[in-house]
């Protein structure tokens, strides 16, 4: 009898871990797709990107540099073994976006904090994929 309960609890725990992992992967893919769209825009430089870059106070040519930096961080994030390092780079990138939008006094909740929302979602996806990160952060023993 004890073996049946142990086996059932073990399979329920495994199913729960798999479910969390799948949700984490889906969230990570959605965030990655959004960021990839941003990279394409910055590298292709349509007029909307040039205008937006100038509005933020940057030289339009700097959009290419921003796109390359984000692309490198995104590639590192997409590789499971280096995903945490990529997430750190993306977090720094998003912090710059918050600062740039604050500087020109964009609306707080809809524009300035959008990068924060995206970053939090990215980390939630990563933690669901790799729950041991909670131990590193001191949130679980």
TrEMBL record:
Annotated Pfam families: DoxX_2 (PF13564)
Keywords in alphabetical order: Membrane, Transmembrane, Transmembrane helix
Domain of life (superkingdom): Bacteria
Record-annotated membrane-spanning stretches: 21-43, 63-79, 84-102, 108-128
InterPro entries: DoxX
Claim: Isomerase is one of the keywords in the record: no
GO cellular component term of the entry, any: membrane
Subcellular localization, as worded in the UniProt entry: Membrane
UniProt keyword Cell division present: no
Primary location: membrane
Membrane topology: Multi-pass membrane protein
The protein's name in its UniProt record: DoxX family protein
Organism of provenance: Gordonia alkanivorans CGMCC 6845
